[in-house]
Amino acid sequence: MAEFAAPVAFEFVQRAPSPRAAELIAAMTGYRETAAGRFAQRQTAPLIVPLIISFGTPFLIALGREPQASDRQHSFAAGLYAGPVYIESDGHAACV
């Protein structure tokens, strides 16, 4: 993954959930990449369970290793993992 970089052109917005959903939802976040390319990120698992709904191209996601073509994920729920999570995108990802 060393030949890839983190996304450099993206939009990121976050807002609080409605009061009715506040006990179940920590935050609502929108993300959209605005420059084509191959991008990679290495992240740790958060202490929440994110639900990702994709409107763009899928992410490549692998636990503890670099992703392969078979690791393509459109929409997904994530959870705790005791190691790094590797994420690749093509610059056209868009999700909430």
Give structural notes.
This protein is mostly beta strands and 96 residues long. The protein has a domain at 27-91. 0% of the residues lie in helices and 36% in strands. The chain is built from no helices and 9 strands. It has strands at residues 10-15, 28-33, 39-43, 51-52, 59-63, 72-73, 76-77, 85-89, 94-95. It has a 4-stranded antiparallel β-sheet with strand order 3-8-5-6, with no helix packed on it. Strands 1-2-9 form a 3-stranded antiparallel β-sheet, with no helix packed on it. Strands 4-7 form a two-stranded antiparallel ribbon. The model has no long low-confidence stretch (mean pLDDT 89).
A few lines on this structure:
This protein has strands spanning 10-15, 28-33, 39-43, 51-52, 59-63, 72-73, 76-77, 85-89, 94-95.
